[in-house]
Amino acid sequence: MAVPVRKFDAVIVGAGGAGLRAALQLSEAGLKTAVLSKVFPTRSHTVAAQGGVSASLGNSEPDHWHWHMYDTVKGSDWLGDQDAIEFMCREAPNVVVELEHFGMPFDRNADGTIYQRPFGGHMSNFGEKPVRRACAAADRTGHAMLHALYQRNVRANTQFFVEWMALDLVRDEQGNVQGVVAMEMETSEVYVFQAKATLFATGGAGRIFASSTNAFINTGDGLGMAARAGIPLEDMEFWQFHPTGVAGAGVLITEGVRGEGGILRNSAGERFMERYAPNAKDLASRDVVSRAMVTEINEGRGCGPNKDHVLLDITHLDPEVIKSKLPGIREISIKFAGVDPIKAPIPVVPTCHYQMGGIPTNYRGEVVVHDQVVSGFYAAGEVACASVHGANRLGTNSLLDLLVFGKSSGNSMIEFIKAAPKDLPPLATADVDRSLARVARLDGQQNGTPVETARAAMQRTMQNHCGVFRFKDMLKEGVEKILEVESMVKTIEIADKSKTFNTARLEALELENLIEVAKATMISAEARTESRGAHVRDDAADTPEHPNGRDDQNWLKHTLWFRDANRLEYKPVNLKPLTVETIALKTRSY
Amino acid sequence: MTTRTVKFSIYRFDPEKDAKPYMKDYSVELDSSDRKLLDALVKLKVVDDSVSFRRSCREGVCGSDAMNINGRNGLACITDIDSLKQPIQIRPLPGLPVVRDLIVDMTQFFKQYHSIKPYVVNDTPAPDRERLQSPEDREELNGLYECILCACCSTSCPSFWWNPDKFVGPAGLLAAYRFIADTRDTATNERLDNLEDPYRLFRCHTIMNCVDVCPKELNPTKAIGKIKDLMVKRMA
User: Fold this and answer.
1) How many CB pairs below 8 A link A and B?
2) Contacts of B45 in chain A (CB under 8 A)
3) pTM over 0.80
């Protein structure tokens, strides 16, 4: 092994919201930290978040973190761990105020406080009526947050390695994590970044689906690396389909549009959500709204010549409100749907958006396999599963997740690094060699499968077999198909062998990560024979014995998928919060 | 799905094998759902995987896919293919070193951004809650904070081409004014000191290419004008 080694106290992979928030803790603590990112930090996918970040500040009306906690547990369909959820909701006001102090340009109320808008599933007084909890910077909250966090890191002199792609995790014989193997994109040179503590903040993997709101870079790199290193992936059957992607283009239209008064209509012009969620209506939880939309379309009440979408209507709103509170949406709608929402409704369709599952962690950001902490390894943000989102995430809880768990994992790493021996232990080389072999295989492959062929097959399979509604037979067939795709991925080939900024090679390496996520998703989904949150199957229907098809007796547990032989294990949901009473199981309705 | 053929002429350069850059012609078959230039480039990459460009969000908010399109800087992901004269000429952003094909080295651009201290400075003790700011004061940041650092503006600016090491450029100056305009920032004087220099600010000759190309419809020239006004006021 002739790979140069660079040594740090901490290495962070990913410079989106979670990675940047963690980096700030470490840099400000004076620790030698390397932050690796495939893209310049402000290009990370946090930038695309629109509607807001939740915190019970109560700036417009009474609110309480306990109500936020209740909504999050209910939103998760009781699959979320209540210790982590309590931690997140209690911390929310602190981390949001801190972000404001960092320079985040939040919109303001007349009294100068942070502007808050209603959002799906956020209610006051334990589910009573919608509450203004989403702290917003117009409809560009993610952009404003990501830039503010990057700017604060510039102030803190954080050391970035921009356009470096991490390839594999390095573990020693005992399984302790020692860092990552990474490739400099401009030169294709491979280095080991060795560190006392390693954080994955690599984001999601929405690109396993054909139609996704996700950026091209959302290829589940952290999940692929973890899976290859023997770490299980938790609850990967749970994917959020956002109700309002622009039909055809997939680009996101924030739920904040409905928070500001937007209404979903079918081909008859009917506000159909009144039938599905009489109380919360258009602001019901995302899984509920997406299913209602697909039901309308399936029953022939879709819009357009192909009756394949519904309409998001804000033509009744004051044009000034649209221009000041939803300017980005107006821009997207004009550019990608060809309609000005002031004048005409936006064609929308449920689109893959967010991965609730991920690398299992506790609320301190430590990676855990069952109850066992993996020494030196941390994960935060969409790549991680704490689990605060359970079977369905509430809107605005993702940006909150980044802040809370970015910070807490940073703090855990600081503690760990300070207690660790001063010198790094000798580097174990087995994982490094495996990683180099992976790159060498790709560069030497002949008569293989083109990357696009395998990628398209994967995306088509996931889209058709593992969508908003799932079917027993289709899932079974989906497992077979995705394993066939996996064998294609083993022989993917690139024509371009240049060492200089070779994006073909990067896409191939990304596909090797995506396929791990696709397998985990399909196999976990096929095995879970109940309906819960975003995972709804035809053979687990709504019955008096199992309302909404949920089966708590058999399935109130987290899935753990191991890459080795596609083994599934399960672990209990933590129903015990840190300080308050358990939020007891209940049938979910909005 | 109806298809159509679109013709391109694309700047190619791989320093490993090309002595100098050249333009290469391509025809790409597109579906009716391929509406943006980025859709076409992604299709082209399936045919020739060596064509190299940056891209990520594909909705005009990450700033990755800035390039020179028929002589004008813009983002491929929000440019309509059908609005472009064919063959569509695609080149890297002008004025920055080319790493490969459409990928430029943005070091100088970011160095200038960093030079204006792009973060809120406020050393007064932070309150337990948010610092208050009126909606009117917050509105001063509109048209400034939305910058996506794509570099379309700075690489369309002749003053930046001649002096990329000395002139901050429109993106950096827009950011400078974003912090000057923020009522929470207490470093206006230091920020003006930092820019009081024959090159850093005053190389802007209001050519306004920056305003013309900004994909977010921001107005760096106006922000630069406001900084100049503050300089004058301070001298008086």
Assistant:
1) 146
2) 503-504
3) yes
